[in-house]
Amino acid sequence: MAKPIIAIKLRPQNYAGLVNLGNRVFTNMSGNLDFTTPVPTLLSLQTDVTDVVNAIGVWGPKGNRGSHDDLVDLRAKAITLSQTLKSLAQYVQNTAQTTAGSNYVLMATIITGSGYQLANAKTPQGILQMVQNFHNFVSRKLSPNEVKLKWKKPLNTTAAGNVKSYNVFRGTTAIFSAAVQIGSTAKTTFTDTNATAASVTWYYWIVPLGAAGYGVVSDVVSVTVASV
């Protein structure tokens, strides 16, 4: 489980949303033994919520708005409430971490008990599928004894960073279990060189590596490479 983090996605212009969050946090934290010394205080939070509610009333409903000064006052009070909520969220985050340590399940329980919501946890990437379009790239820029391999990322890759590396395996037969790893790259290309005095036929595989370990082995690509 990833470390729980508080998410406040409300903009200062979302007056009703700030008021709702402020009321929820005030209610949940009042008398909550996990949060005995909140900073800012719950009284300050309640005052800021009341100020925004009153300013909304002065600004009035759509079609019967108040003056420009009333709007400026509402915006200022909403910013103050937003800052109070962010500061209090930091207090909750720090307190929960001090109490729970590395017990992230307990930390999440403490945080949500405050009335704040957690940021969506990133879903870990599962076993990576095989790379796509694995092939021998032919180019006049390559020397006769060079082979350039190219491929595309696995289809189920949910984020670019989920593939930690692509591991290149080479063998002298089409049996993967007899192949050896000859390189690892973060790119989707790899160049191999035949440094021997004889032409050889090599068999290649690409195996992606992610958080869940090695992924599915690619289809095999065979290439006959000229000598030096």
Quick overview of this protein structure:
The protein is of the alpha+beta class and 228 residues long.
Written description of the protein model:
This protein is α+β, with helices and mostly antiparallel strands. It folds into two domains: 6-118; 132-225, Immunoglobulin-like. Helices cover 33% and strands 23% of the residues. It is built from four helices and ten strands. The protein has helices at residues 15-29, 42-59, 68-100, 104-112, and strands at 6-7, 117-118, 132-137, 146-152, 165-171, 180-185, 189-193, 200-210, 213-214, 221-225. The strands form three sheets. Strands 5, 6, 8, 9 and 10 form a five-stranded antiparallel sheet that branches. Strands 3-4-7 form a three-stranded antiparallel sheet, with no helix packed on it. A two-stranded antiparallel sheet has the order 1-2. It is elongated and about 85 Å long.
Keywords for this structure?
single chain, 228 residues, alpha+beta, Immunoglobulin-like, 2 domains, 5-stranded antiparallel β-sheet, 3-stranded antiparallel β-sheet, 4 helices, elongated
Rg from Cα? 30 Å
| Shape assignment | elongated
Number of domains: 2
> Helix fraction?
25-40%
User: Can you count the beta strands?
Assistant: 10
The biggest beta sheet reads: 5 strands, antiparallel
Poorly predicted runs of 5 or more residues: none
Q: In whole angstroms, how far apart are the ends?
A: 52 Å
What fraction strand?
A: 15-25%
The residue-averaged pLDDT reads 93
The succession of helices and strands, N to C, reads EHHHHEEEEEEEEE
The number of helical segments is 4
